[in-house]
Every structure is written in structure tokens, then in C-alpha cells.
Amino acid sequence: MKKIDLDEYDIDIQDESYVEDDEAKVQVEPNKSSVTTALYEWMHSIVVAIVIVVLLLTFVFRLVNIDGTSMCNTLLNEDKVIITNFFYEPEVGDVVVIPAGKYYDKPIIKRIIALEGQQVYINYQTCEVFVDGVLLDEEYISSDTINKTGETEVSLTVADGEAFIMGDNREVSYDSRYFGCVSVDDIIGKAQFVIFPFNNFGYLY
């Protein structure tokens, strides 16, 4: 076997061990343009979020403050409620807001009891409410359905485009028993959530 003479080969072995070279260090400066871009994107996101919230509160959701006790115990005085009118079609059982002026000097919030074409009969002696001949099971009311004008009963058919509304606290509520049916076109929106106080927070249905 032929022996290999290593001296015949001139081989340089590179030292691959790590040696820290202070002179080779490069100080990396922050890219000012990147910082500016990040700040711009952050501000842009905030502005977009604010615009979306404003549009939602203007055209989709509204915040309503409850003033009074006519909807107790469903809604309490000074509750903050979110209402919506986006593609809204009134339905029986909805809690809705009516603007000030036409029916009362302040906005009112009541529950829809009947809609166009439905027959409403109220017996004030027994405090019972019938719609289309069916006795309503009104677990949401906090007081008897009475009438302070001395009537013993009322019977009517809701006209086209109208709604018969009443508050859940019937003893104090000023509603369709006194001013008649309301136009559904006058309904601002449907109450959806109580958002304040937090102990009352929740969906209304």
C-alpha cells in the first residue's frame, strides 16, 4: 500500500471557531420611515374604528336613556338601552321607542301588543288583554292592566300601518289606552340590549 505524504499537500484548514470581533460589530439604527409608517397605520386604524362606530350609532344602533318607570320591571329608570332600526320590521312583543311630540312631549318606550288587522279587547274589570280572541299570557307586566279614565273595556281593530302599544307597568304607563294606536312609521327602533347599569346588562328577549 502506498503511503501518502501529507507534506506534499498544502492544505489550509480554516478555523471555524467563533471569535467576537468588536470592530466587526455594526450598530443598527432604527428605520425612521418604518416607525412613521407604523404610527400612521396605528392612527389610521383608530380613525377607521371611530368612523365605523359613529356610522353604526347613527344608522344602525342608538343609545337611549330610560326616563321613568312605565316599563318596569323589564326596563328600569336610568337604564341605558341600545336600539336598532336597521332593516327593522315591527313585530308583536317588540319593545320600541316612539319620538317626542306626536303622542307625548318626551320620547316613549313601550311594547307592541298588536299590529294592523289584529283585534284588541281589554277587560279593565278583570285586567285581561285579548288579541284576536286569545288571552295574552303577559309574564312581563309588573301591574294590572287598568284604565284611569273610567272605561270598563275597550275593543278595537288596529288600522293599517299602525300598532297598539302598552307599557309593562300598566298602572303608570301612558300608552295606546289613552292616545290610541301609533303609526309604525313613527317607531324609531327596537330596543335590544340593556348595557348599563352592568347589573341589568343583557338581551331583552
Question: What would your notes on this structure say?
Answer:
The chain is an alpha+beta fold and 205 residues long. It has one domain (59-203): Umud Fragment, subunit A, CATH 2.10.109.10. The protein has helices at 32-60, 176-179; strands at residues 61-65, 80-84, 95-98, 108-115, 119-123, 128-131, 134-135, 153-157, 162-166, 182-183, 189-196, 202-203. β6 (128-131) and β7 form a beta hairpin. The longest helix has 29 residues, at 32-60. The relative contact order is 0.17. The model is unreliable at 6-18 (pLDDT under 50).
- Total DSSP E strands: 12
* Sheet having the most strands: 8 strands, antiparallel
Indicate the radius of gyration in whole angstroms.
36 Å
The CATH fourth-level homologous superfamily = Umud Fragment, subunit A
Total count of domains: 1
Mean pLDDT, to the nearest integer, reads 86
CATH architecture: Ribbon
Helix content: 10-25%
**Which residues form runs of ≥5 with pLDDT under 50?**
6-18
Helix-strand string: HEEEEEEEEEHEEE
CATH topology: Umud Fragment, subunit A
Q: Kindly provide the name of the CATH class.
A: Mainly Beta
Gap from first CA to last CA: 97 Å
Structural class: alpha+beta
Number of helices: 2
Strand content: 25-35%
Q: What spatial form do the alpha-carbon principal axes imply?
A: elongated
